[in-house]
Amino acid sequence: MSANHDVRHYPGAGLMTTVFFLWLYAPIVVVIWFSFNENRLVSVWSGFSTKWYTAALANDALMDALRVSLTVAGIATVISTTVALCAAMVLSRNSDLRFAKLSETVVNLPLLLPEIVVAVATLILFSQLEFTNGLLRLIVAHSAFCTPFAFLPIRARLQGMSADYEEAAQDLYATPFTAFRRVTLPLIMPGVFAGAMLAFVISMDDFITSNMLATGGTTTLPVYIFSLIKRGTTPELNAISTLLIVASLVIATLALALSARAMRRA
Amino acid sequence: MRRGEAVEVFNVSKMFGTYQALDQVSFTIKENEFFTLLGPSGCGKTTLLRMIAGFERPSEGSISLFGAEIASLPPHKRHVNTVFQSYALFPHMSLEQNIAFGLENLGWAKAKRQARVAEMLELVHMSDFAKRRPDQLSGGQRQRIALARALAPEPQVLLLDEPLSALDLKLRQAMRDELRALQRKTGITFVFVTHDQDEALDMSDRICVLGQGQIQQIGTPSDIYEEPQNRFVADFIGATNFLEAEVVSLNGDQAQIRTALGLEFTAAQKGVQGPGAATMSLRPEKIGLEEQASGNVFTGTIRSRNYMGGFTHYAVETAGITLQVSRRNALSHAESYDIGREVKLGFRDESVRVLGQ
Lengths: 266, 357
What we know:
Chain B: GO terms for molecular function: ABC-type polyamine transporter activity; ATP binding; ATP hydrolysis activity. Chain B: Belongs to the ABC transporter superfamily. Spermidine/putrescine importer (TC 3.A.1.11.1) family. The complex is a heterodimer of chains A (266) and B (357). With 266 residues, chain A is mainly alpha-helical. Chain A folds into 2 domains: 3-35, no CATH class; 60-265, MetI-like fold (Orthogonal Bundle), CATH 1.10.3720.10. Chain A has helices spanning 13-35, 51-58, 60-93, 100-108, 115-128, 134-160, 164-171, 176-205, 208-213, 221-230, 235-265. Chain B is α+β, with helices and mostly antiparallel strands and 357 residues long. Chain B contains 8 helices and 20 strands. In chain B, the strands form 4 sheets. In chain B, strands 6-7-8-3-9-10 form a 6-stranded mixed sheet, with helices on both faces. A 5-stranded mixed β-barrel of chain B has the order 11-12-13-20-14. Chain B has a 5-stranded antiparallel sheet with strand order 15-19-16-17-18, with no helix packed on it. Chain B is globular and about 75 Å long. The relative contact order of chain B is 0.11. Chain A binds chain B through residues 162, 164-165, 167-176, 178-179, 182-183, 186-187, 265-266, and chain B through 53-55, 74-77, 80-82, 84, 86, 88-92, 101-102, 105-106, 133, 135, 149-150, 153.
């Protein structure tokens, strides 16, 4: 490619890039900056302090919400990734499967439906079933809507993997289960990991469904943060947000590094 | 069980949807034999191999391994191993672990396993590489490890699916010799699938030529080359000249024919039903030029010349027919004939095969 066609040499490219990154990251920078503000008022800077972090970590309601979120996300990740893995195996390794196209669409459909519709439907269903355990309701609902997110990367990885490896394993006297455990699973692990990561993040991030299903004692972190905002923002909120950003960055970096390593090997 | 039969394929057919990949195929492979399934792509040879391995089920028919019916057994219950075209070495395991994989599944004790792995690495001259991973190997080295992995569990039959196709020319030649030596040394029955006629002729004890889902001919390499049973085999194996001929009379496996060249002679025939139109096959190297012309002699004009090193290929036109002629360059700077030159040609009656239409 000649230098003339390099997109960086187009007029205004530098400016566009700057605006883009500012637009994307300025709010985040502001949140992090003001989380260290000593002042009670969010938008008035009066000095550096970490007291809002201390306050956030000492806030029992907040810690309870975090605990609920982590519990729900943890269990929902395991369930949805397992279901997604099974679905992906069946859809990728059965050439003569009936309704293959339809099945795949059904698995992916929740990605396209508006979440509010699914949330309302779930609420109505649970009420009719008189299913009242708040934590269980959240786990069931989250497991369901996280499944397609976990499914996509696993399916992609399986499609990219030659069936020769599984055949070779079975040719070498491995039962179908041993072949899966010792050959297929290790080889698709980056996809499974990426799928689990996505499911976890989607569950942690969910507001609509969690808010709809929340009962006393099962407030998730996003629902709690939203309730804080209704009572007016405090710098404590900035501190919580900053902690979440750091946690996300750590997870994302870890995921990228692991999948890059796996890609090099495959 | 009849003695000495490693694999018996009986009346096997395979349909993929409405496509008939194999049609009523039957043959037996003898113990300790290097048996090759040869054919163009789409002829069903890989399907046949995959059915012996257990990855495909025959739509009809039976397959037995040393007398035991195996057509309904899953792959892990058949004592056969496969060398895959892609090698399919497990990328997340070391070479040692790759070779030990089959032995672990068979429940071999650790000490016995380790000894066998070492023995196999030795056999394929890869002992120094035990701890490496497949992505650190060259194509030829992967090929060797794939062989070692498949041979380690002492299979009753070893299946090889075009294992040399990914290698470059020089290496392929060396691996042919190595494969053949390995087969003799281990005494294991090899079933080798290829579309490369040179490979098949070079390595096999017997060749099964497959075409359009059916067996065209089974025989030793020289049977297949010198006595093709039909036009398909004559055309697929080696190069040949097909000439229209008329059968004047038939006497057992000999036919009196009159050719378009105006010659009349008697030659061996296969599949000719009676007097009438037939095809004769005459290999390019069996036609002599000038001082080598003997038997049925006539003249023609050189139309093209391709120098191939060991041989020179000529196209010679005579009576409106173009014949491919191959002449060995026995002497350095052997005489070559210029385009346009008139030359004497000749072939012996016994070089001709007359084939039914």
